[in-house]
Design goal:
About 40% of the residues lie in helices and about 15% in strands. The chain is an alpha/beta fold and about 375 residues long. It has a single domain, classed as Alpha-Beta Barrel (TIM Barrel). β10 and β11 form a beta hairpin. The longest helix has 16 residues. The chain is globular.
Length: about 375
Amino acid sequence: MKSRHLFTYDVRPGCLYRIPNAPDNVMFDLTWCCDQRCAFCYNPVENHSHANPPGETTRKIIQTLATWGVREILYLGGEPTIHPDFESILELGAKLGLEQRIVTNGGHINKKRANLLSDINIEVGVSLHSSVADIHDRLTGSSNSFLRAINSLDTMVEAGVRVFVQYSPTRLDKNGLEALAAMLSTRYSGVVRFIDVNRLLPYGEGAERGQSVFLDEDGWWNVMQAIGQLASGDWEMRVEAVPHCWILDRANSNRLSSAFIDALLASIRPCYMAISQLAFDPEGHFKLCPGGPPVGLSLLEVEPIKMWNEHPLLVKRRTFSFLPKKCVDYETGYLCKIFYECAGGCRSAAGLITGAADPLVLKL
């Protein structure tokens, strides 16, 4: 489902979108556990020491999501492949007819797992933070993590798994996106389907340790220009929500071509959290942002559709009242003409300076 099809142009609080009976896709943290300590991790440091949730709890959550009408699950974490019931969870999701995707650090994919992923036809994203092993390892806080990730990619490509790379730009990997794309092109010759570029957010451990690696506004613009160049060529790029007005202002001041701007904007994916997407922690508590804290009751404690339609935080999110008036102004009836494509740029149209994040999540 394309969320723009839910857009109404009805400029009244809570009326901009027709809310479906269930989110089209969810982001589900399969576990809190992780064997790496990324400097920018959005999870609190204490989460890493949590035990894995019981397999039966996880299976009940997946069954509930499927019964509710969710079409797709993206498994996150922690590190989802650490869950001891990882294989049986994927087999259950396939049996229920769910489209399943995973983002992994690539440290736990062997040939047997790769064959299972291929058989079930699951798309897998591997996090690579640089094409330089030392930089990647420094960012993950884990020696040889780059080599393990590359070995996992090799194994999955050989098994025929649909793979992509997730990349989080940092100050340590200055101008590194082009080098990463060149490395992937040489090593995998077009088999890696796309690069998913994620904006780092000041949540959890990243709020404490990430400031030294977060990009400032100029740094992010350099990344945007690299994305535009790659998207104008042979690469499919997918970029986490960025305000379109900010991109247009910077692009026009640099006198970039309309073709370049169009390629860059086409790569930006809006955030439709609480409209057609929702995130859950390992116990089924929903989150307003995949990187934010859990709020409310668990899916196993409340009727999902009641929570989805009536929870005050979800209702508030759908008003977009925390966005600046250059996005939407309910008093005058003004609505930015590209709002349905941008949706406020991850709820923060103030620019991409260090610390920019969802204001509603930061208040929790």
